[in-house]
Design brief:
Elements: H1 2-9, H2 58-75, H3 81-94, H4 96-107, H5 111-119, H6 122-136, H7 143-153
Helix pairs in contact: 1-7, 2-3, 2-4, 2-5, 2-6, 3-7
């Protein structure tokens, strides 16, 4: 179940783990410059009179991510491994907006901001992860539960 804990640590689900294209080998010739593309970040559509989209508000997003982790800790108290898997699966639909915002924030290059905002919630996250680890220990080899958690975070 160690993999489960690592999935939560990757929740930055999404924050700060950009995977770019591999660097081509150097053959002594400079590659042509990349084309100039002007594009808005994937989360650029803010409401004119409302709060910024969740993906553009690092503190609000961090708070919601912590809520997802705490909800997951609660879900792990659902009973046996199958019941826990079902409860985790229900979180996916309920928290889709948070997980989507985390992916958008990462794609827009806000991973470091989100991680910094998450720092203020370190104790809550640690407590939730300890609960999750303890409660899922008996399910360490349960592939269905592991898949449910992977699906929750899109890993």
């Amino acid at each position: 179940m160690r993999r489960v804990v690592l999935a939560f640590l990757l929740v930055g689900a999404a924050c700060g783990h950009h995977t770019g294209a591999p660097t081509p080998p150097d053959h002594g010739v400079a590659p042509p410059p990349p084309p100039v593309v002007v594009a808005a970040p994937p989360d650029a559509m803010a409401a004119p009179d409302g709060p910024p989209p969740l993906a553009q508000d690092p503190h609000a997003l961090a708070e919601r991510i912590v809520g997802v982790i705490e909800d997951l800790a609660t879900a792990t108290g659902a009973g046996d491994c199958a019941a826990i898997g079902k409860a985790v699966g229900e979180l996916r639909a309920r928290d889709a907006d948070v997980l989507d915002a985390a992916r958008k924030a990462d794609a827009a290059g806000r991973g470091a901001e989100i991680k910094a905002a998450l720092d203020g919630f370190r104790d809550r996250v640690r407590a939730a992860l300890e609960t999750i680890t303890k409660r899922t220990e008996p399910c360490a080899k349960d592939a269905a539960l592991e898949r449910a958690i992977d699906d929750l975070f899109g890993t």
